[in-house]
Amino acid sequence: MDNSFIQQLNAQCTSICITNSKNQTFITEFALLGLTDLVELQLPAFAAILVFFLVNITGNFFILSFTISDPSLHTPMYFFLGNLSFFDISFSCVVVPKMLVDFLSQKKTISFGGCISQMHFFHFLGSSEITLLTIMSYDRYLAIGNPLHYTIIMNAKVCRLLVVGCWVIGFLHSLLHTLLTARLPFCGPNLVKHFFCDIKPVVTLACTDISLNINLLNMITGFLATVCLLLTIFPYVLIGRLLYNIKVTEGRQRALSTCSAHFTVVLLYYGTAVFTYLRPSTQGSLNQDRLAAVLFTVVTPALNPIVYTLRNKDMKRAMKRAGKRCSLCARV
What we know:
The protein is globular. The termini are far apart. Helix content is 76%, strand content 5%. The longest helix has 35 residues, at 211-245. It is mainly alpha-helical. A hairpin with a 5-residue loop joins strand 1 and strand 2. The relative contact order is 0.14.
């Protein structure tokens, strides 16, 4: 990263501060370093990320619409899938619009309150999503391993409670880190070496000891991600044993089709999230975190609807029915 570019940003933003009665100075805005300082890469990066963002919003919106409007998709699997699409839309909207604006702006600043809010909703939605992915893996195991009692076990009330549980876990996890970060004194510099307000690059700017924040981030976030990952993989181990015992090729393929899309999404999501939050925070790691964050905030949410529509026969049929209804409406 160009040092002159960083010094210029610091010069623009370190004057934005307040002084309290004890003559202590605290900043009121943060400056975001952005994804890249190379001018020739600004527009290509803007165009590429905009395309991924539009694919994410459009694809997940259609999945959410189909799961609500098509009666054949009113099943636990598609109830969870609709919630996953909602999480993907919301998760990207927390980060990407501000990121796109900053590509075209000289002054990449965000207020202290806006920074804390962005941090809260980013971890709130992200934690809720990994919890939902865990629930979806058990849903697939029940559908394959116990199909006769599947609808009884995964009834509408249970599904709603499980999704509410995802929201609660995500909210409490995010609230802890948000409150601990908001209470830190920030005296300057205020240059966040990221394209959004994530915990690691923000707390490193605090003018006090941040060991508690970093340790809790590694312990709690790492614990949540690791436990959810293990609980997500375990049902697939059981599914693998079930598939091994299925002798009919058609039955094995049908069982695989019900869980292959979800397993692909799990690999995409955890591959980047675990890489970011289970490593020690260093100067080099913060630069790597920015690249990894692009994958799970921009790329992965855009790939999710593609994976689920291309590898899901029910969703394809729902899309065809929706297309026929639209053609009939156009004729009328």
